[in-house]
Amino acid sequence: MVRLSEDEAAMLGGRDGAAVAKAMDLLVRYADALGAQDFVYTDNVAGVPGSSPKWVKDYYAADGGDYRAVFSRFDLDSDEVVDVPVMRGVSCHLQGGMDPDLWREMGMSEEAFANFQADEAEVSGHGIQVLKTCTPYLAGNMPVLGEHCAWMESSAVVFANSVIGARTNCEGRESTSAAMLAKRVPNWGFHLPEFRRGQHSIDVGVRVDNIFEWGMLGYFTGGAVEDAIPVLDGHIGGPSLIRHKHFGAAAASSGGVEMYHMVGITPEASSRAAAFGGQDRGERFGYGKAERAAVYERLNSIGTSNAVDYVMLGCPHAAIEQIAEVAQMLEGRRVHSSSALWIFTSRAVKVKAVAAGYVATLEAAGAKVMTDTCSAISQAVPPGTRVAAFDSAKQAHYLPAMMGIEGRFGTTQDCIDAACTGRWKGTLGQGALS
Ligand code: F3S
């Protein structure tokens, strides 16, 4: 049984109201299932609190079919409907289901949009920051080294643990919603130093020096170590936020990687010994030319047609540098009449991209810059899409299978060329920039 502090016992006993008591009750059951000894305090929670499509509200029709019903019964797994107060911890909402302006282009109905707006009013009314992104760290939520967080979204979790050195497990909707009220999560897994040590080695034998290469290395890494913690060493070129973003998202997709170490690069890996917490252990995997070629082939294995009718960029959500790069690539060019180009980002980054003139350039070329969501989350692609192209290994992994379409994976330049010509000419990474 998890040990409770006096404060936690009081919350469980109802001192702070029914919703906080229900949140503590859920967290106690969760901690006991994990075998956690106690709780850790958190004041940085990222989830999808209370948001739901209309059919979920309909499911709880007998309880009122509203935000309150969904938050109580679904999020808090409560046996009764309780009033939901303003969240007590610093809380933010991750990605949602549609762009707030371009929802019609995404094929969403008036009813779905009205539901989206109603949920958003509830979310902000409950003190939750409407970041609506899978990259909260690019939209104002940047934890610090050693900070205990409760985050959902695998690509954000692996970034927080590995690149920042913050501490979070890959939480779910229920535990994040409860943590927003109780400011606690079980002290287990990545909150504990002994769970953060490397378990296997990846020896990188080819130069990995742009987001395309970092994405492929991430995809290989996840396939090799599955859900363990890899320690990468070797020919890894200079790190950048967007390289880490693509590496981690890919590793969390092909496997279940929630944390990685790169020797001399990530904050808990000043040396191999530091990364492993002592001696090397586990298996050693080599990443060379043959492995790189196999990953490329695997990510281009769904389908045979080179007639690309949709190019999707921004998985994880694009950083401002990526939007600037695409705007530059599109200068003087136009998206082909047989193709569409959608670039996904957060609202915060789009504001910067508008101010810098990038969005105007992109729109003039026929591209759309969308926020809040992505094709995989919203299950939305332009009408008639049969073949889509991506510069993200994560999206190439998920979207073709989800939507029953063909997929192509390459560099950002490959994708822009495909968008402007309607044809795929994969170059296996030649000329990649970032
Ligand atoms: Fe983000 Fe969608 Fe990719 S939510 S990480 S852009 S699958």
Brief summary of the model shown:
By secondary structure, the protein is of the alpha/beta class. Helix content is 40%, strand content 15%.
Secondary-structure map with pairings?
Blueprint: H1 6-12, H2 18-34, E1 39-41, E2 45-47, H3 54-59, H4 67-75, E3 91-93, H5 110-125, E4 150-151, H6 154-164, H7 173-182, E5 184-186, E6 200-208, H8 211-225, E7 230-236, H9 241-254, E8 261-262, H10 272-276, E9 284-287, H11 289-299, E10 310-318, H12 320-330, E11 340-345, H13 347-355, H14 358-364, E12 368-371, H15 375-378, E13 387-390, H16 393-403, E14 406-409, H17 412-421
Parallel strand pairs: 2-3, 2-4, 6-7, 6-9, 7-8, 10-11, 10-13, 11-12, 13-14
Antiparallel strand pairs: 1-5
This protein binds FE3-S4 cluster.
The site of FE3-S4 cluster has 13 residues, from strand 10, helix 15 and helix 16.
